[in-house]
Specification:
Blueprint lengths: L4 E6 L3 H23 L3 H18 L2 H15 L3 H17 E6 L5
Parallel strand pairs: 1-2
């Protein structure tokens, strides 16, 4: 069985976390399309947003991936972008959210 990535998230965010993660999943698809078109500018814009949003909910890995992908887009490194998108998609496929009270974070 694959190991899950458990992330503790404030219970107050319960209604918005899954839509947020779905949005990131859609961003991955969009960035793959942009990569096929060599549209590094739009990849950079999306990854900048991802970099800034992950930490708000406790998803440090999403922030790290966003930073990695943003840098790769800046230098137009297709291989790194592909690797970053794969890592992010794999993480999202294994993430397990544990909703807890604020004092349990």
């Amino acid at each position: 069985m694959d190991k899950k990535n458990q992330v503790k998230v404030d219970r107050d965010f319960e209604d918005i976390v899954e839509p947020y993660l779905d949005h990131i999943r859609n961003d991955i698809l969009l960035m793959r399309d942009y990569l096929n078109d060599a549209d590094f500018q739009n990849i950079q814009l999306i990854t900048h947003q991802i970099k800034g949003s992950g930490g708000r909910f406790g998803f440090g890995f999403i922030t790290e991936c966003g930073e990695f992908l943003e840098h790769a887009a800046n230098v137009k490194d297709r291989d790194k972008i592909n690797r970053g998108l794969e890592d992010l998609a794999e993480y999202l496929g294994k993430v397990e959210i544990l909703f807890v009270s604020e004092d349990e974070l």
